[in-house]
Write a structure and sequence with these properties.
Pfam families: adh_short. InterPro entries: NAD(P)-bd_dom_sf, Sc_DH/Rdtase_CS, SDR_fam. By secondary structure, this protein is α/β, with parallel strands linked by helices. It has a single domain, classed as NAD(P)-binding Rossmann-like Domain (Rossmann fold), CATH 3.40.50. The chain has a 7-stranded parallel sheet with strand order 3-2-1-4-5-6-7, with helices on both faces. Helix 2 crosses helix 9, helix 4 runs parallel beside helix 5 and helix 5 runs parallel beside helix 6. Bound molecules: nicotinamide-adenine-dinucleotide (NAD). Nicotinamide-adenine-dinucleotide (NAD) binds next to helix 2 and helix 5.
Length: 321
């Protein structure tokens, strides 16, 4: 009888724990984001640093005293976009994240920079680099009309590039002394609203973003289990950022192939795209949200960055289209 009672109590306690855990998760997006981590002297690496979101984030980070490793596919992009900000706390790295070899080499360069700055870890990795259809694409069409090279290129940057960066840099993110500093490092994966609601006629772009959303969630859950198993030092926070439309280089419009059998179908989507484009958010709005997540001890698992009415729209879009 006592054994049965013990089993029932254990069962009820576990059920209560599960309910509290689910409650916390459900309420998390409504909780006020704390800004309780001091950015000063913390090392942040971001890819796609020369671009719209990236360059705004670099400015914000330097302004608040962080050390920044700015990564982009060409040194000239970094020089052009961020050259004027050059200082002791800013380093440029030319890395094509589509190349495994270059990413492996980048990890060695990051180790050297940490030594030079006398830092014991990389505090934040912001996987932000991305391409649209393809840099070489001249025409847009239906999703069945894109060729092999193009599909591989988009996945290689938007999905595999981020995964490679995590694999190579995660070992440098360990918090070696949790007694001195209890704040865990963070990995921010920049997906897109297209990773939640696949808009038509964007080639395989929405698929790459859905893939990175899935990757972020499995990475986050593994990290939480690592912590639950008692390994606090290796625990890293994971946040998936899902921005809405913003007028940066990536969305530079490419003409739709008028000979495509999808051309008339594409014209039907114009009102939807008009709505999306007319409520564009500014790149600094997105950068500020990324900054807030990095330096918050209760950073979110995922965050949609858009105008509030577009957030409602995106949530409904799934059910009506
Ligand atoms: N602008 C939007 O509407 C929007 C919306 C949702 C999500 N996003 C995502 O936000 C991220 C940043 O986009 P953005 O709007 O600042 O675009 P952007 O084109 O201004 O910046 C992208 C940057 O990534 C760099 N890059 C491209 N390929 C690379 C590679 N192989 N290796 C290293 N760097 C590379 C580019 O040189 C560029 O500096 C992207 O992942 C994009 O998919 C953008």
């Amino acid at each position: 009888m006592i054994e049965l009672l013990k089993a029932v109590i254990a069962y009820l306690l576990t059920a209560l724990q599960v309910l509290i855990h689910i409650g916390k998760k459900v309420l998390a997006p409504f909780q006020k984001l704390k800004q309780d981590i001091d950015p000063s002297g913390r090392v942040v690496l971001l890819t796609g640093a020369a671009g719209g979101f990236g360059s705004n984030l670099v400015r914000e980070l330097l302004d608040k005293g962080a050390n920044v490793i700015a990564v982009d596919v060409k040194m000239e992009f970094l020089e052009k976009s961020l050259g004027k900000l050059k200082c002791e706390k800013l380093e440029f790295l030319q890395v094509d994240i589509a190349s495994n070899e270059q990413v492996v080499q980048a990890a060695e360069q990051v180790k050297e920079l940490l030594k030079k700055w006398n830092k014991d870890r990389l505090f934040a990795l912001v996987n932000n680099a991305g391409i649209g259809n393809s840099p070489n694409c001249v025409k847009r069409g239906g999703v069945v009309e894109f060729d092999e090279d193009e599909m591989q290129q988009v996945f290689n940057v938007n999905t595999l590039g981020h995964i490679r960066m995590v694999r190579e840099l995660y070992p440098l993110m360990e918090n070696k002394n949790t007694q001195l500093d209890s704040n865990a490092s963070i990995i921010l994966n920049v997906a897109s609203i297209s990773g939640r609601d696949a808009l038509p006629f964007l080639s395989v772009y929405p698929s790459t973003k859905h893939a990175i959303v899935g990757y972020s969630h499995s990475l986050r859950r593994e990290m939480e289990l690592l912590k639950a198993s008692g390994n606090d030092n290796s625990f890293v926070r994971v946040c998936c950022v899902e921005p809405g439309f913003s007028k940066t280089q990536i969305v530079a419009s490419k003409p739709f192939n008028e000979e495509s059998i999808f051309y008339k179908a594409y014209l039907l989507t114009k009102p939807l795209y008009f709505k999306v484009v007319s409520s564009a958010i500014t790149p600094d709005h997105v950068a500020l949200e990324m900054y807030r997540q990095i330096f918050s001890s209760n950073s979110y698992d995922s965050v949609i960055v858009d105008k509030w009415y577009m957030i409602v729209f995106w949530r409904l879009f799934n059910y009506v289209f």
